């Protein structure tokens, strides 16, 4: 079972000019098997939410809690959060020159499980995961994200998701910069992961496009560091027609 609970989360970003409050009380419960889409305009704090939950040092949690299956994540290091079952696919995946995809994945898997995966089955698993993302076998010898196209970075992240099979996944704009074919491949990977039935998925996006391929259980509208509206997938369809403006105005007047 994998339940992610975010309660009254307040987060500051640490800047050279001092602390800047970004998240202003986020509440969200993701139950096993659910996919929650978080949609909001640029600069509303969606990535801040993802980074704060993952434990990025530039983001300071000033109030509130985040638990995964009852374990308080905010008190754990980044590595401990991953071992607790949390996975973050970043909006801008980082390059790791000199570290091959194969070694990177093996190290991550070993860190999570506490033991190294068996070589023969692991090589097959990696090839399978890359293949499902339509990444060539030779990909595993390349340096992580170095010279990858935007689409390859995102497909590599979803291959990672499938291999590591965490309890909860936060996917930050996994759809950005993807052409229609890559969007389908990535969506199918997320759907396979979610179809296990006991995983928690938070899908951050500002376009409704990906929601044609990944059906969210709930949709949340995120404006100025808070969830300001919630609904089913029809909310995403309404957003497509109306945009965020009404929500931005309402939040400014609140
Ligand atoms: P979104 O992902 O919704 O586009 P972000 O979480 O990236 O929003 O950003 C939210 C706000 O926090 C923006 O105003 C952004 O400029 C600010 N912010 C995020 N990171 C930093 C940083 N490292 N330094 C200064 N401001 C930041
Ligand atoms: Mg943004
Ligand atoms: Mg962002």
UniProtKB/TrEMBL annotation:
Swiss-Prot/TrEMBL keywords: ATP-binding, Nucleotide-binding
Transmembrane segments: none
Annotated GO MF terms: ATP binding; ATP hydrolysis activity
SUPFAM superfamilies xrefs: P-loop containing nucleoside triphosphate hydrolases
PROSITE patterns to which the protein is assigned, alphabetical: ABC_TRANSPORTER_2
Key word Nucleotide-binding present: yes
Pfam families the UniProt entry points to: ABC_tran
UniProt-listed SMART domains: AAA
Matching InterPro entries: AAA+_ATPase, ABC_transporter-like_ATP-bd, FeS-cluster_ATPase_SufC, P-loop_NTPase
Family statement: Belongs to the ABC transporter superfamily. Ycf16 family.
Protein name per Swiss-Prot or TrEMBL: Fe-S cluster assembly ATPase SufC
Organism listed in the record: Tessaracoccus lapidicaptus
């Amino acid at each position: 079972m994998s339940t992610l609970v975010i309660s009254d989360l307040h987060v500051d970003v640490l800047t050279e000019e001092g602390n800047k409050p970004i998240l202003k009380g986020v509440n969200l419960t993701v139950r096993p098997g659910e996919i929650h889409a978080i949609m909001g305009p640029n600069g509303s704090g969606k990535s801040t939410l993802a980074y704060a939950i993952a434990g990025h040092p530039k983001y300071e949690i000033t109030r509130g809690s985040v638990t995964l299956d009852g374990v308080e994540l905010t008190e754990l290091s980044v590595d401990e959060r991953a071992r607790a079952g949390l996975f973050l696919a970043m909006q801008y995946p980082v390059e790791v020159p000199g570290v091959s995809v194969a070694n990177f994945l093996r190290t991550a898997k070993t860190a999570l499980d506490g033991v190294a995966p068996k070589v023969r089955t692991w090589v097959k698993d990696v090839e399978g995961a890359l293949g499902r993302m339509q990444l060539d076998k030779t990909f595993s010898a390349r340096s992580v994200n170095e010279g990858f196209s935007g689409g390859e970075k995102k497909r590599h992240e979803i291959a990672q998701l499938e291999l590591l099979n965490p309890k909860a996944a936060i996917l930050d704009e996994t759809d950005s910069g993807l052409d229609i074919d890559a969007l389908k491949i990535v969506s199918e990977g997320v759907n396979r992961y979610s179809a296990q039935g006991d995983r928690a998925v938070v899908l951050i996006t500002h376009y409704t496009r990906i929601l044609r391929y990944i059906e969210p259980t709930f949709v949340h509208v995120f404006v100025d560091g808070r969830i300001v509206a919630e609904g089913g997938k029809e909310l995403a369809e309404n957003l497509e027609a109306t945009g965020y403006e009404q929500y931005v105005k309402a939040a400014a007047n609140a």
